[in-house]
């Protein structure tokens, strides 16, 4: 909310766009060359090259090296919480695997969720969890991981499953009063929280219904012949783990802590420690195997659990379908995602320091000649900032500050602005691979952003829905003073 938007009157729009065009071009070529392995490091360096292009533009327009580095430092500082959460998610995944929490979720899920209802059920489950917790990140890190495993065992494409998880997670992220973005958007636009939520349901509910129908259709048309025989999977899970309903205590506690407004980092730490304790109770043989020792004692128990938390853990199985599900990367797995976020913050920081973010938003604002043009400019600004600033919050804050007066001048109530920046800024952040949200969810779910993007129906439809409402003047609320006139 206190973010200062840097302006540079000497910077021209074409100059502000040079780093963006250069970055997109370099990333496209890099992905063409490296394919799925581009996130292994080459994309991160391309982001630094994009930052270098932006810095050259900055030097040309008299922006000092120090001011650029100061802004980069502020950007990196702002991601500290996200980085620690990522590390803790990796740790949590490790202990939840070796304790049998995730295998038990998959075991019981395979018995309850048939292929025909799996995708819509995934959407609903993630929607409920995200509404309760107010966090798309927590939803992915808990039930999201388990649902990826269940869907994979049923034979679904991982991108399709992740699309359902993301769609449900962002439904709650948009509407929950406990969500930070749901609180931030009305604060920037100048309206109150519950007016914002009520007004946002007008576009969100139709979008959700369409999303649900699309996943029902996908589920009904799913090729049952490609489905893996679940009986053998259930038998192999029980052969490797002591499966028990008691293990569900761990995720219930974590979700309960988030609902009670416990800080996510603390809740995930408690979940990690509980996972380690339950591993000792329910899966002592696995803990012993990971320690490399021959007998269980305090030292071997400590070593086995710490290995699961920090490094790659592989639970042996002859079932190839379960091989990926029985593998966890721990905190180490998240380092590539953290690397990506840090490099994205360098690019976003320099783009802000040279005034490019302000220049792009101001140029979009000038295109807003009509009410629809104003809404379209807001959507375009949010999308542009998710791409250039690589940060969801900036995609809400900058348009919120830039467009607030323009909405008043058009006689439009501030909830029009708050709804539009949520419909476009909040939900599209996850669709950008180098955005903090895109990097987080891809790393947590183990599914590439472009792989899940075609199936993230809720996120894709939301900005289109808000533009449809604007184009046909559906439920566009006027200022009270304007109505009286």
How would the blueprint of this fold be written?
Blueprint: H1 13-34, H2 42-60, H3 65-78, H4 80-98, H5 101-112, H6 115-133, H7 136-154, H8 158-175, H9 180-189, H10 193-220, H11 230-240, H12 249-259, H13 264-282, H14 284-291, H15 298-310, E1 313-314, H16 320-323, E2 327-328, H17 330-333, H18 335-353, H19 356-366, H20 371-388, H21 392-409, H22 414-428, H23 436-445, H24 449-452, H25 457-471, H26 480-484
Antiparallel strand pairs: 1-2
Helix pairs in contact: 1-2, 1-19, 2-18, 3-18, 4-13, 4-15, 5-7, 5-11, 6-7, 6-8, 6-10, 7-8, 7-23, 8-10, 9-21, 9-22, 10-22, 10-25, 12-13, 14-15, 18-23, 19-20, 19-21, 20-21, 20-22, 20-25, 21-22, 22-25
What does this structure look like?
The structure is a single chain. The protein has 485 residues and is mostly helical. The protein contains 26 helices and two strands. A two-stranded antiparallel ribbon has the order 1-2. It is globular. 54% of the residues are buried.
